[in-house]
Amino acid sequence: MPKLPTWLADTMEKIISNKIHTVEVIGTKMLSSNVKSVTLRGDFSSTNFEPGNEVLFRVNANEYRHYTLADFDQAASTCQIIFYLNSQGPGHNFAVNMQTGDQLKLIADHAKVGYQNDSNQHFFFGDETSMGLYEWLGKKALDEDAEYFGILEMKAENLDSVAKLKLLIDAVPADVDAPAQNAITWMENMHPKCWEMWKDATFYLTGRAKSVRQFKKYLKQRGVSFKQIVSMPYWELGRIGGA
To answer: What pTM does this model have?
Structure first.
């Protein structure tokens, strides 16, 4: 989201006041040196977040950032967000300084990537910025007695964070100069019978724009149809708004 004049941001918040929830940070946990899980509590009695729902935070006087929820428990009045601390921009500063007891304004938004209910197999591709989305989609799949699996490309220092979430997803080191290539190599090394079992799945592609594009191209070459692919690029090097 582009920068807004402070007065316009203030006015916008008054107009959408029914979507704004005051929340308290009740817990934080570092999953790696730059992946942070945060649990928030607020009055969500009139809200029914679904897997894939995004929220916004005003990270400074002029800028907002989108984040995808990793979990939501209406009965407990809590939600969870997994932040990727990329050491760049106001989004990083906002998330890295977040601590237990902080009071924040959370703005409810819609889902750009939602759970595909008509599928019984769900395959996830992405990176650190995808972890929250896939944490919740994976839980949803298990609740529905469906299957899920996937591959994330991540910086080496973040590879262990996947295991800490107990996600049924593998991870490979990211190569900034060869987006998605290590993940594609991982796919190529799958046993042929494994590919046969998953070729009709719904494929969710999120994260770096160039990686999403390359992985989508690979899937199409393998015969995956366009209707099986759900894609949403979150960021790209040099693009404002991803930090």
So the answer is: 0.91
